[in-house]
Design brief:
TIM Barrel; alpha/beta; 11 helices; binds pyridoxal-5'-phosphate; seven-stranded parallel beta sheet
Length: 345
């Protein structure tokens, strides 16, 4: 079998959620957008609900409708994109809580679904989603009279604790929401770690739950083991892979493993990446292909059946460094071709 095996440790994931929960005195939600950061919302969300999560966040209404079918009636499901044209039946039937981002969305919501729950998303400086201060001033009294479930905003630089933007956004959010009755939320994973000032009534961690930075105390959640298809000896001067980008300087034993960029193993990681054969670190040789990667197994005396790309020795943030990206992208890129299995939950 040449199918790589992706193992998702739901116990570690729930432990991470609990650890983030323990860092604040307020309710801890769970962000499960993008199929739970690629890990499988049908398994991740029930595990988190069992661990105690009661409020879930998704990016779009379609994800919310799917999540409602998975989790049943007893949780709140909030949608960051708010109420978009065409969303009405999904929001109504799945009892979603759209985070209203503009006066237009507000009008569409109250006209289409009078009395249906909603939240408010405010822009405190990131300029991505949410109402700006002027728009919010115009709508504020009308919106608050209808008792929004949550009033939220999002931090642009929370992974850099000393960034001046954090305080600026905190002040902007407080200025826009001081004294309101509705529950408030500002913090994702990074915001949870910034401390109590940022916690308000609800936190919304995602990446930390899935084992990624900036939550450096997170337990690793994913491991990825890739079968070795064949190995060979190459002589000094021979090359490996497309474009002959790697040329042997000395006799080298090369193993070819069954994964590639079609599986979300970023081609850009190239020769900075390594895998592990037992306790031996094996460098990637040459270019990562669509389905195959060559690795240096010269130091390995007994070839294991699989090598580890993610696991004990290296996690999503190591791969992110090699690919000049972030752990979030490593997770959400994980391919559909893996044999996925879940531990615990
Ligand atoms: C994705 C997202 C989160 C979760 O962010 P993490 O950094 O993964 O914890 C929270 N709030 C909003 C608005 C988001 O888009």
């Amino acid at each position: 079998m040449a199918q790589a095996r992706l193992t998702i440790d739901l116990d570690a994931l729930c432990d991470n959620w609990q650890s983030l929960n323990a860092l604040s005195q307020t309710e801890t939600g769970a962000v499960v957008k993008a199929n739970a950061y690629g890990l499988g919302v049908d398994r991740v969300a029930p595990a988190l609900a069992k661990a105690g999560a009661r409020t879930f966040f998704v990016a779009i209404a379609e994800e919310g409708a799917k999540l409602r079918r998975i989790l049943g009636p007893d949780v709140d499901i909030c949608v960051f994109s708010g109420h978009m044209p065409g969303d009405l039946p999904l929001i109504r039937d799945a009892r979603l809580v759209p985070m209203i981002n503009s006066i237009d969305q507000m009008l569409m919501h109250v006209e289409g679904l009078p009395g249906h729950p909603f939240g408010i998303q405010l822009d405190s400086g990131m300029n991505r989603l949410g109402m700006e201060p002027a728009e919010w001033s115009a709508l504020r009294d009308i919106a608050l009279a209808q008792k929004p479930r949550l009033v939220m905003s999002h931090l642009a630089c929370a992974d850099e604790p000393d960034h001046a933007m954090n305080r600026r956004q905190l002040q902007a959010f407080v200025a826009m929401t001081e004294g309101i009755d509705a529950p408030r939320s500002l913090a994702a994973t990074g915001g949870v770690l910034l401390g109590e000032d940022y916690h308000f009534d609800m936190t919304r961690p995602g990446i930390g739950v899935y084992g990624g930075l900036p939550f450096s105390d997170a337990k690793p959640v994913v491991s990825l083991d890739i079968p070795v298809i064949q190995s060979r000896d190459v002589l000094a001067g021979e090359s490996v892979g497309y474009g002959n980008t790697w040329v042997a300087e000395r006799p080298t034993r090369v193993a070819t493993i069954a994964g590639g960029y079609a599986d979300g193993i970023l081609r850009a990681m190239g020769p900075r990446a390594s895998v592990w054969a037992g306790e031996h670190k094996c460098k990637v040789l040459g270019r990562i292909s669509m389905d195959l990667i060559g690795v240096d197994v010269s130091a390995v005396d007994r070839m294991p059946e699989t090598v580890e790309l993610l696991g004990q020795h290296q996690g999503i943030d190591a791969l992110a460094d090699w690919g000049a990206t972030i752990g979030y992208e490593i997770l959400t890129a994980l391919g559909a071709r893996y044999d996925r299995s879940y531990l615990g939950g």
